[in-house]
Amino acid sequence: MTRRDALRTAGLGAALGAVGLGASPARGGPPRPVRPPRLRPGDTVGLVAPGGIVYRQAIVDEARATLAALGLESVPARDLLARDGYLAGTARQRADAVTALFADDRVDAVMAMRGGWGAARMLPLVDWDVVRANPKVLCGFSDNTSLLLAAYARTGLVTFH
Fold first, then answer.
1. What is the 3-state secondary structure (H, E, C) of the chain?
2. What is the C-alpha to C-alpha distance for residues 152 and 161, in angstroms, rounded to an integer?
3. pTM for the whole thing?
4. pLDDT for 37-94, tens place per residue?
5. Are 144 and 47 in contact (CB under 8 A)?
6. Quick one: which of 135, 141, 140 has its CA closest to 156?
7. pLDDT tens digits, residue range 131-160?
8. From CA 76, how far away is CA 62, in angstroms rounded?
9. Tens digit of pLDDT for each residue in 94-119?
10. What Rg do the C-alpha atoms of the chain give, in angstroms?
11. Kindly report the CA angle at 86 between 141 and 93, in degrees rounded to 5?
């Protein structure tokens, strides 16, 4: 290794450490990645709304039809159509819905129905021990990025955006 390569490596290590990416798990760094089992035809996807409202049953029906066309079953979370102001139910309802889908042995994946705003509010209420004990595909977009990042930070679960 040349001096230049050593300095680059040291600089990269310092930069990653400064943002918390180079820390070891023993020092509170990122957890070891946990890859969920891949989806197969016939698997079941749990539909959840961690933030914004799902306005109509027709939206849920369309999502379920699309998943069925891909060979997947689907199940809506309890309170999927709930409303609390501009959010899809209270923070407790939304966190309980995420936790329940991870606890349900029939569910192989958890998919956020929409983005919006508000998912971060329910993160302290999710039972991360349940999520850690039941690794599943977790996917979402937009505001749900906070859920995806929290799942990785708390459990090591590899998620999909």
1. CCHHHHHHHHHHHHHHHHCCCCCCHHHCCCCCCECCCCCCCCCEEEEECCCECCCCHHHHHHHHHHHHHCCCEEEECCCCCCCECCECCCHHHHHHHHHHHHHCCCCCEEEECCCCCCHHHHHHHCCHHHHHHCCCEEECCHHHHHHHHHHHHHHCECCEC
2. 12
3. 0.81
4. 999 999 999 999 999 999 999 999 999 999 999 999 999 999 999 999 999 999 999 9
5. no
6. 135
7. 999 999 999 999 999 999 999 999 999 999
8. 12
9. 999 999 999 999 999 999 999 888 99
10. 18
11. 75
> Tokens 């918390």, residue?
20
Q: Token digits for 152?
A: 């990785």
